[in-house]
Task: structure prediction
Amino acid sequence: MSISPFAHTVTILDFETTGLSPNQGDRAIEIGAVKLENGHIVDRFQRLMTPGFRVSSFIESYTGITNNMLREADDCAVVMNEFADFIQGSNLVAHNASFDKKFLDAELEAIGRSYDGEFACTLLNSRRISQQATSHKLGDLVRYHQIDNDGVFHRALADAEMTAKLWLIQLDILNYEYGIALPRFSLLQRIGKTPKASVAKMLSEVS
Result:
């Protein structure tokens, strides 16, 4: 399956985890993702997974995912094997993508799976093309851009869906402000790596 080079056809994902770092023994406890084709959601993936140990009361409170909920969930290996199938042939997007990428990499490495897409980050892009926003946390950007939502945050599928709406808003900004109607995924990656002061010039040259 060939990967679309365009930014409107991607998979947006979000992990909920037991902590901040797989290098410190933290594990994924929920994965949520939506597939976009030509800017429309065409598929969703959401699963809880048991990390093999009890999660802290802080994580229970922060995510709303309790140890009782995880008791009936499949092991990480089972869920992540299914998720590896789900994301093949697609570029990937996340809010604060470095966080999600390190958990995706760690969980897939543990089961000998990999993926063929690359990552882009709505957080890095927001800091560059929505510089007037006072905060670039996902919930704050949902309010800033007046994105429709049900008020649920820190659950994986809800956050993935909000990130997908944010991603599409960022693509709209490129269209309306710079005349880039069908941006390539590589351009969104480039935006996230460009110094803030240089973004407008770079985009005007692209358009």
